[in-house]
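=== Structure Prediction Worksheet ===
Name of assembly: unnamed complex
Input type: mixed (protein and possibly other molecules)
Chain count: four
Listed entries:
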Amino acid sequence: MTRKRISESTIHRLSLYYRALSLLEKENYETVSSKELAKREKLTPAQVRKDLSFFGTFGTRGLGYPVRELKHQISSILGIDRVWRVALVGVGNIGSALVSYKEFAKQGFQIVKLFDNDQRKIGSNHKGIVISDIANLETELREANIEIVVLAVPATVAQYITDDVVRAGIKAILNFAPVNLKVPPDIYLRHENMSMELEYLSFALVNNHVPKRNS
Amino acid sequence: MTRKRISESTIHRLSLYYRALSLLEKENYETVSSKELAKREKLTPAQVRKDLSFFGTFGTRGLGYPVRELKHQISSILGIDRVWRVALVGVGNIGSALVSYKEFAKQGFQIVKLFDNDQRKIGSNHKGIVISDIANLETELREANIEIVVLAVPATVAQYITDDVVRAGIKAILNFAPVNLKVPPDIYLRHENMSMELEYLSFALVNNHVPKRNS
DNA sequence: GAATGTGAAGGTTTTCACAGCA
DNA sequence: TGCTGTGAAAACCTTCACATTC
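=== Predicted Assembly ===
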């Protein structure tokens, strides 16, 4: 239980460190310096060291960080050293792409339930999972001990489904619909807004933008 | 050409304002206050006013902002009041989902070229677009006057393809592969890292996280 | 009265710079 | 010598609060 409040940016960068360390491990690095780690993710060495220092002291002065060990530590901090039971609601374009998205499984996010409201899809087998009727969302989420729900449904119905999901006692939701959702304060809700980055590119091109702070 | 440097967060929030205004327009609102706009996107009124103030004065004291007008202004600031010619490389899981993703087209991002290296896909028609051989990437990007490239290819080959894309003179790249890419400094490169938000949820659940600053 | 626009204040995050250790 | 860990400084971003305008 982390007591000092950690910023979101730091957590997001932990994901980057984890990714870089996975690669370094494959490349048979034993240790890595904050400088090298920073270079690989376009950050500064000081940033890397400060981020890690929030969680402990993992390095050796003069040497750097032990790759395998640090990777393991970060996976433990992020909570991805275990399997999460994930349900996906909405097996449309985006939804079915996510089911096959290897990266999720690799990091312990196991999609074990699929829901849709399309009668033609319900009951059919999609990549080894039978698609459930969204009408039974609440009870089936409970029965399957789902911990995280991913929403890939149209914006128009996203709020109704969210209300169901919350009623099922789910505490973490990842929303792909381009709409803001209302949830009680104890629910973790995150958005994946795929247009946002394209809009950023558009803005940058039109305005010849140089950001104040680098992403 | 924006001279004062605008922060990335401000630009991302412009996307949110745009989205909220589109909805408000559908709901037949004539004007909207910073308070209401803030509420709809879980921000503060001061934040909304400050963000907008970087680009001009759009509101009327005592009244608020004109919905239609402000929406139009923001679309012009973001550069989405026009059509962007986009090419998508990698027609796999994610790639084909993106081709059908309505939100992109709605905002002026028109996918007009598809590339893949799979002989079975090359030459076939996917949602009205013939898939081109990735071997011809550079020349075909030029010929089609592509302005933005979306990469939905495996991480292992992303860098090679990026080099080609850069050689074709493309200045804006959106990368879905979970790997950091090297590009010259004059190229706008953005990442869509879909695991990142799931990892954040995992971290939050495990650590009972309350962020320092709200997203 | 209601709500914007905005300097100034207050927080937060990043970077600096260096002591300390292998 | 090389590189971490970390207070302190700098940069940045958000919020406050109020003059201003409709």
